[in-house]
Amino acid sequence: MSTGTADDGSSVSEEEWERFLRDSVNGVPDAPKEPSARARQVTRRLREEPGQAVPWRAHAPSGPRRRLKAWHVVAVVAALGLLWVALTPGSLAGWFGGDGGRGVVAGEPSAGFETGSRQQRGTVEEPFRGSPAALWADGAAGISVPAAKAVGWMSAAQVEQAIEQTRKFLFEGNLDAGVLRGKRPDKAIALVNPKQEDMPRFFERAFTRPDEKHDPLLLFSRFDSEKTRLVGDVVKVRGQLSVREGERGALVVASDVTYVYPVVKAAAGSDDVVRTVVRREVVASWDDPAKVRTVPGTFSLISYKVNMTNGGCDGKHTGYFAPEFGPRAPGEGPGLDPYDRSKAVTGDGPDGACGNATRS
């Protein structure tokens, strides 16, 4: 039986109304009486008030509406936060002194990382103690790369390969264990266009008779293993690659990367840990072989700059970093924070900030 109400305002069903009419004609003694005008008025008012039953054909929610509890809201917000972190894995780094791998930040946080004489010194067990680099990624994982898309003469797939080869150049010249111990970075050199004017001569001179303009440290990180050794096998890194179109449709890949090397003296039992901090800006051009003389799989160097702290202050160019141990005399000029990546690389060279670093 339908539970809806009649259209004329009666509170009885159509079946009952028909039986009423039939029984009234037939004279049935207990036939139901027709509702009074007062009853019909009350019924009509009840129908018009909110919250009453609706016709069975009308839409109704499947269940009563419930008020959200506080913990429901918290759970939803937490789930959305986890989804955001999953989709942007580098986003949390900025909350803890990082920049998500992008590399350029307005200085590192000062809390927990003291400067000057109060700074915590690293130890053999904790070589990055007291340094912002403690929060950085290990090795090449600290170099972020852009999404590959077609640029100039290169397709998206070719751009992706060029980005990875440029990243490989940075690894082979600044993170390879053998190169850091003083070996020649042949794998890195092999990625530089041998037909580029002056570069073959630069490399030959840099590794045989280094001087101010021909110094392997302008491009590569090397320590003299007879004087200095790295602490552990971790180098902390922060930086990024970026791409743009250059001259004649070339793909230009620019890198801005900071490397932090914890070292001690090479003598057995040495435990005086210091850090050499090197920031490099290298700009490479992947040229169209139809327009520029180049060897496939290699790039030409447009420019390279380096800033360094505690890598050697005696003015000598040996082709190796020569960090100083123990107390250091303050240098002339304003102090330099080697972890502040908000400023451009000045290109002062391997000994451009001797004694001026505010922290290491």
Helix/strand class: alpha+beta
Low-confidence runs of at least 5 consecutive residues:
1-10, 51-68, 85-118
| Percent of residues in helices | 10-25%
Element-by-element helix/strand order? HHHEEHHHHEEEEE
How far is the first residue's CA from the last residue's CA? 86 Å
For the secondary structure, the number of strands is 7
Percent strand equals: 15-25%
Overall spatial form: flat
Characteristic terms for this protein:
flat, 7 helices, seven-stranded mixed beta sheet, alpha+beta, 2 domains, 15% strand
Which secondary structure elements does this structure contain, and how are they paired or packed?
Layout: H1 14-26, H2 37-48, H3 70-87, E1 137-138, E2 143-144, H4 156-174, H5 177-180, H6 186-189, H7 199-206, E3 228-230, E4 236-245, E5 251-265, E6 274-286, E7 300-309
Parallel strand pairs: 2-4
Antiparallel strand pairs: 1-4, 3-5, 4-5, 5-6, 6-7
Question: How would you sum up this structure, described in words?
Answer:
It is built from 7 helices and 7 strands. The protein is α+β, with helices and mostly antiparallel strands and 360 residues long. The N terminus is likely disordered. The relative contact order is 0.12. The protein has 2 domains: 65 residues, no CATH class; 203 residues, no CATH class. Strands 1, 2, 3, 4, 5, 6 and 7 form a 7-stranded mixed β-sheet that branches.
